[in-house]
Write the structure tokens for this entry.
Amino acid sequence: MFPQTMFPITIGRARSQAAVQEAVRLDKPIGVLLQSKPEVDEPTPDDLHWVGTSAAVLRYVTTPDGTHHAVSRGLKRFRVLQFLEGWPFPVAQVQFIEEPDRTGPEIEGRARALKERALETLQLLPQAPAEMAQGLQAIDDPAQLADVIAGVLDITVEEKQSLLETFDLKTRLDRLLALLAMRIEILKVSRDVADRTRESISDVNRKALLREQMRTIQKELGEGDENAVELEALEKAIAEAQMPEEVEKAARNELKRLQRMPEAAAEYSMVRTYLEWLTELPWRPVTDAAPIDIGEARRTLDEDHYGLEKIKRRILEYLAVRKLNPTGRGPILCFAGPPGVGKTSLGQSIAKATGRKFVRVSLGGVHDESEIRGHRRTYVGALPGNIIQSLRKAGTRHAVLMLDEVDKLGAGGFHGDPAAALLEVLDPEQNSTFRDTYLAVPFDLSPVLFICTANVLDTIPGPLRDRMEVIQLPGYTAQEKREIARRYLVPRQLTATGLTAEQVRLSDAALVSIIEDYTREAGVRSLEREIGGVFRHAALRVAEGSAQTLSIDAGDLPPILGPHKFEAEVAMHTDIPGVATGLAWTPVGGDILFVEATRTPGGGRLILTGQLGEVMKESAQAALSLAKSRAESLGIPAERFEKSDIHVHVPAGATPKDGPSAGVAMFVALTSLLTGRPVRSHVAMTGEISLRGLVLPIGGVKEKVLAALRAGNTTVMLPERNRRDLDDIPAEAREKLEFVWLEQVDDAVRTALSPAAVATAPSPAAT
């Protein structure tokens, strides 16, 4: 008997009956001890365990057959100190064992684990009463929990007596946890043996019986008819989908499997979902496509986009070929250019001009091949790839599918390489039999018009770039931005802010100020944000009632947008020898950079700073070597190289810079420093140099020229071999800029450096 438990006792010996009757009469507890030698009829103190439990007698009953019963409740543990003689019933002097108040994390953690294992044991028992689990859940005291579980646990009486004699609560909990763990394992093995035995008895007959019972139940519930209707609808959808022969054969095989499969089977929903995907894809041949109207396409492109004549012409050529040869395999177009120049909107215009649906798939950050090619059907929640999902959404293969940000695909890892998966999609020779992993049947992608967009081409793998025809979209000039703002951005922001053209008027001078003083970008996204800021300010004034109509000019912008964010920096450096303005290409358009050179007393070292890449460092070294080799013709004393350290710095030191095109700027900056002749005002330059003094061609000419124009330069020096790129430069830029074509570095010196103001160069300290 354990404390805090109810315990029925059958009392047979006369002395024990007298003891219980006396305890009931005096309302005193009885002591319950386990007999160590069960075979002894009249036990002596040596035949008993000396640790027991005191109990209160709740009810004493004598049955008609003369048997005495007592229902008792355990109170406390006690240890017998001495048995007393001279009484008509057993009497002993005892010491009560008080439970220590231990509620630390060690006790609470063990008690929680004990309760969980006890509940698990009850779940494994075939006929465990639910009241027992509820009673265990209600016990919060760890000592009471341990005694209750020990009282009902199926173990030997010797093990129970040992638990009763374990006074330390932590030790008692550990022993109970071990006993319960062993009991759980025994119950699990027993259950597994019973399950295997039942499975081995006529498994075939049992399944047949269960199927018949399931049919009967479904018929009673009316579910069988609904399932048959769904299967009939799937069969009808397969017949109407106009699938290719191979695909229809695979679909009908899966439908037969589904018809033989119970609805409760785990694979039922998987097969049904697969068939739904197959029937909802656009398998029909594209025959109802509207004819391509080249004139309407031209009007649509002109209406939606300003400028971009070369790009529009290439798109119209593509559409003309598709009109004359609808079944031909056209190229995969890739629009490459800085953010905000209209790559995505061009794709939408193409869809509008050709009467196709437009679907966009964003590839930025995609690092799993399954996002392109789909997952295997064995996985839970498997789906086709984004290509198939997009075409299902479009409902037709006669669509424009834009693969946005193809240059930002994640690197291949253990998930596979998504760029490699795109090779089949974007190859006109292969995509007619594209096989999605989920579908496992070929799907013809050749009618789809694929258009990719990218900011830079360097991050696109070579084999993937080779499958696309790249169309460059460089930045806009200030004139083009003004027209774009007036035609598209201003009306769009007026609508977004709830204003009308009569309420707010934005002058051309204000637009020019926003373009030149508040934005410096290749595209027009920042320009649209700034225009939106102006109109939001106007909307506040109108909503407050302080003004009904507003006219915003350039002078009104600083209170609204703040002080000017950009200014022409060229004038700040033109009168200092050793400073040249170079031109650079960046993923967001062209930009200008300043090459600064100075010299200090030293031993002829070259110091390079500004976070320059290896190629740019080599360009600086080549520029210095070229200046040394031409020192006599340039009028530079040789001792200046030997007795001075030359420091070349490119500002914006937090921005990494690399590339060979700053060679001309570095040579001009060094020559300006060593001769004391400053670089002429508003002259920008770019070009790679060789040790023979040749100026070699570079890339990104249009972006660099537009950056020079935005920064306020009037003269741009370019390599002679880049003269072929002049046609790509907008007419507005060609009219405003003077171009100087360089074959030798001597041409750059003659154009860039001002006439010598003094006979000698300034001292290092003055520099």
Remarks:
- Confidence is low (pLDDT under 50) at residues 757-767.
- The longest helix spans residues 169-200.
- The two ends are 102 Å apart (CA to CA).
